[in-house]
Amino acid sequence: MTWRTRVWVLALLPVVLAVVTPWILLAVFSERLPDRAYVDGWSRTGPDHAQGAPTWPEWASGFLFFTAAACVAAVALVYWRRVPRLQRWVVAVSWAFAGQIAGGVIIDVAPVVDVTGYPTQQAPGWADLAKLAIGLVTAVMGWVLVGRLPAAPDAKDNLPEGALRRNLGPTERVVFFESMRSVKAACLGCALVAVAIVLNAAAFAVMGVALFLLARANVQIDSEGVLLDLPLMRVRQRVPYQQIKYAEAVNQRYTREWSPLLEDIHRFGYVGQRGDHMVLHLSDARDFVVSLRAAAAAVALVNGEIARRRELAC
């Protein structure tokens, strides 16, 4: 099975299984369930409103609506067909969605098995947290099952005429390091944490902490390529010289989003400040972008190392 086929199967199959899970439970426990689907919110309305609860087939039919998620996943895979990194995210989100739906169905139905009439006990308070936990675990499973991303082709073209370049001797080493900070990410992260404390909302706290951890990044250029390091999150992204066509320094605004991380069909990287950026044009038709104070010096080093390697390869 090719990598592309595996991604399609991993993205669509979990959604299909989540949709059919209610029907499987009905087939297995049809004789042991109460007359109506006293699950979800219907387990809290009280026996006076029990007749308003749906029948079990009506309840299971409601999950057919989630087949739209499979259509969304298919559209995303087609749109990002040239970006394996984003296709992996599609698989992870699909598994998180399917795991939360299927796990939630099992958690909701299990307490009413062998119950006659309206259940005397409400759904357990930990059910929502359990569904969220299942979604997170299945998202990690989907991410791991994708496996290693396909390698990008090597760049073989010469540097364009006029490209900024530093002539490197045979024994010279390429060394560059710069630390960046995103004030916007730090401020937004602190604001979200404050909102979480006021509203007692865990989701805002998670988002705020994640943003705050993105507020610092390091860029290193060495003998292996260009390394983007997010030290607070312990995440690294390396771009080897073999995948770089050439580098250039540009001065433009790349993003207006709330996060300094840049990721779309055309480019990825870290934009923490306005001003000069180093843009690496890669062999897979995407650009790697990082904002640097000494962007020109970094570009000259990268182009110099690329030129030296390709001259030695000839």
Automatic annotation (TrEMBL):
Keywords (alphabetical) are: Membrane, Transmembrane, Transmembrane helix
Q: Which residues cross the membrane?
A: 7-29, 59-80, 92-113, 125-146, 186-214
Q: Which domain of life is it from?
A: Bacteria
What is the protein name stated in its UniProt record? Answer: DUF1648 domain-containing protein
Give the lineage. Bacteria, Bacillati, Actinomycetota, Actinomycetes, Pseudonocardiales
